[in-house]
């Protein structure tokens, strides 16, 4: 699915039934990845204006996502820091050495 500013909207299904929504802006070829995480009282829409207006998308791949239980990642099961940290989208910056940017 397409979002704004050339972004693609995705969903990652977890084994426990959670669905994690995320959006990406990607260029051609390998580029560094910047992962944007929202604060506890928010969702990935916190980064909408940034995604639309940043000049970084010319040289960086961008990824933003909703933590489970936030925005388009509805979840009624157990949650908390330990579970959020185990969701693969949240660990992307560890795996790909991308710098995390958090909004508190």
Structure description:
- This protein is of the alpha/beta class.
- It has a single domain, classed as Alpha/Beta hydrolase fold, catalytic domain (Rossmann fold).
- It is 16% helix and 25% strand.
- It is built from 3 helices and 5 strands, in the order E-E-E-H-E-H-H-E.
* Distance from first to last alpha carbon: 28 Å
Low-confidence stretches: none
What is the mean pLDDT?
80
The CATH homologous superfamily is named Alpha/Beta hydrolase fold, catalytic domain
What is the total domain count?
1
What is the gist of this entry?
By secondary structure, the chain is an alpha/beta fold.
Task: List strands and helices in order, with pairings.
Elements: E1 8-13, E2 19-25, E3 33-37, H1 48-53, E4 61-65, H2 81-86, H3 92-96, E5 100-102
Parallel strand pairs: 3-4, 3-5
Antiparallel strand pairs: 1-2, 2-4
Features:
104 residues, alpha/beta, Rossmann fold, 3 helices
